[in-house]
Specification:
Layout lengths: L30 E2 L4 E2 L1 H4 L5 H11 L9 H12 L5 H15 L7 H6 L3 H7 L6 H15 L3 H9 L2 H8 L5 H15 L3 H9 L3 H5 L8 H15 L8 H14 L5 H15 L3 H9 L3 H4 L8 H14 L4 H9 L6 H5 L4 H14 L4 H9 L3 H10 L2 H17 L2 H9 L3 H6 L6 H18 L3 H10 L2 H7 L6 H14 L45
Antiparallel strand pairs: 1-2
Helix pairs in contact: 2-4, 3-4, 4-7, 6-7, 7-10, 9-10, 10-13, 13-15, 14-15, 14-16, 15-18, 18-21, 21-24, 23-24, 24-27, 27-28, 27-30, 29-30
Length: 530
């Protein structure tokens, strides 16, 4: 809700399902990549035993004792060019792949410097040798998993059109390795993402989503879809999003947790790309299936779903209302009480964007009973969650009606709100001062009680200190509060609204005729009652 200064969450919520969201190195370990993706070579070996024995024998020459790394790489690069000896060529390419699959410091640049990159790309064209295609694709995948410069080197070598061709290979392991390679290239950033999309990757990629596809393969396909949706500067083109959304609407029903988590993260990236993208997501009806995931038993699913719907409520009031109409708030008591701090922070961030909406939306938050847990996080939460809670309260003082604002004050929000004036973050100090000033402007007949409460909890002392703050906006706000509401002590009434027990009383001393007008709750907390 830009009109009231929405709180845009800048911290990235932990995306726990990814070891590396952009790039995956295919290692020699049978357990690699996303979840439990098996090494395709272990499952799809297209070599005869005779060829395998010949390749193994030839490979030993690259591992001779005393052979320097530079000499080994040069020998591999030379043999990889020997098209007259298929076994030697395969042994060289496979040895290169194994070196690039090393967990520690793979010699990517050294191998590129031998001039072997064009050779590996040429191997992708040899349809009569699917094992060679597979090994070359695997090696190129790992080169593309390196730095942006290394990824671009693979692209500039002409590999992408050949990888797209390999998506139609009759050999599944070759198809899957091409998917993996394209995922690494797409994940480098928006430029390469759009380049690969422009070459037509989406249609053949989505064709793999069918009941016959092995689960490990489908996980890789879903991971590539995530990378297609990532990066919002610029976001993927509308035409591409329209192609992808039906697949996400299908995958969101999948029972595999890895696929489900990746699917929801893909949706979250689309909803983080502006109101037009949000509208496309909402129009496909996926919200109906997304909202229940807020209470999923897997925290990873909840995390992704919370970010996805949280991004939607940064949009227009109508887009926000669609989330509320889908029953999202019914899930937030559990999210606010979740044992993970990051979930709490994200849930409060979500609500801060609702309280930045219109008064009807603010009222929905109040009626859902979510103000009290927000105030609890404001007082006792982890610091980042307290910051989000400060935004939620401050936004409400702008968007809410006077009754709604004082409902929040009555829940004990002011003391922990003022406590944040002690932090070193200028943005949060300004957010709190804005909120305090807004509350005071609405205080009217309760002005004495509000000013007394701010003073009693130490807020006044911090406001006075902030009159000397380096930030111009902060010292102006602090000065306005002091000048308008604490400027002339002689004009202050002697009765600050507190009785002998420290209770607030409204309209006169405590007594039967005033028993419903203010005071503190039974636990002794300063809370307004109306």
């Amino acid at each position: 809700m830009p009109a009231v200064g929405e709180n845009a969450l800048t911290e990235n919520l932990e995306e726990e399902n990814f070891d590396d969201l952009n790039n995956n190195v295919v290692s020699n370990n049978p357990e690699v990549g996303q979840g439990d993706n098996n090494n395709p070579a272990e499952n799809n070996n297209t070599m005869s035993q005779e060829q395998a024995d010949a390749v193994a024998t030839l490979s030993k020459t690259y591992n001779a004792d005393g052979l320097a790394q530079e000499d080994r790489l040069r020998m591999i690069a030379n043999d990889a060019n020997d098209v007259s000896n298929p076994n030697k060529q395969l042994a060289a390419v496979q040895s290169a792949r194994k070196l690039l699959s090393s967990d520690r410091n793979p010699p990517i640049n050294e191998l590129i410097n031998t001039g072997m990159l064009p050779t590996l790309v040429e191997c992708l064209k040899i349809e009569t040798q699917p094992t060679l295609q597979f090994e070359a694709a695997w090696a190129l995948t790992n080169i593309a998993s390196g730095t942006s410069e290394q990824t671009i080197a693979v692209v500039n070598s002409g590999a992408v059109p050949l990888f797209l061709n390999l998506l139609r290979s009759p050999h599944q392991n070759v198809c899957e390795q091409a998917v993996w390679a394209l995922g690494n290239i797409i994940g480098d950033g928006p430029d390469l993402r759009d380049y690969v999309i422009g070459l037509g990757v989406i249609e053949p990629l989505l064709d793999f989503i069918n009941p016959e596809i092995p689960i490990s393969f489908l996980r890789n396909v879903t991971w590539v879809i995530v990378n297609l949706c990532r990066n919002k500067d610029p976001p993927p083109k509308i035409e591409a999003v329209k192609q992808i959304l039906p697949a996400l609407s299908q995958l969101i029903h999948h029972s595999d947790t890895y696929i489900l988590v990746d699917t929801v993260w893909a949706i979250s990236y689309l909803t983080d790309s502006g109101n037009e993208q949000i509208s496309l997501v909402l129009s496909c009806g996926i919200l109906t299936y997304l909202i229940p995931l807020l209470s999923h038993t897997e925290t990873k699913v909840q995390t992704a779903a919370l970010r996805a719907v949280g991004n939607v409520v940064t949009g227009t009031d109508d887009q926000t209302q669609s989330v509320l109409n889908a029953g999202a708030l019914n899930h937030f008591r559990g999210l606010l009480e979740h044992p993970k701090d990051k979930i709490n922070k994200e849930a409060v961030w979500f609500l801060s964007n609702i309280t930045a909406g219109n008064q009807n939306q603010v009222q929905e938050v109040i009626e859902a009973g979510l103000i009290e847990p927000v105030v609890k996080h404001l007082e006792h939460g982890e610091y980042m969650t307290r910051k989000e809670a400060a935004w939620a309260i401050s936004n409400l003082t702008v968007s809410g009606s006077r009754d709604q604002v004082f409902n929040v004050v009555s829940k004990g929000a002011l003391p922990p709100f003022c406590k944040l004036l002690e932090v070193q973050d200028p943005q949060i100090i300004q957010v709190v001062l804005d909120g305090i000033l807004n509350i005071l402007k609405m205080s009217e007949e309760f002005q004495d009680q509000i000013t007394a409460l701010i003073e009693e909890c130490g807020g006044l002392d911090m406001i006075e200190i902030h009159q000397n703050h380096d930030n111009e906006e902060i010292y102006k706000l602090a000065y306005e509060i002091i000048d308008s509401y604490y400027g002339d002590e002689d004009d202050q009434v002697d009765d600050d609204g507190l009785n002998d027990q420290g209770e607030f009383t409204f309209g006169g001393p405590p007594g039967p005729e005033n028993s419903n007008n203010g005071g503190i709750d039974g636990a002794g907390n300063n809370q307004f009652s109306f």
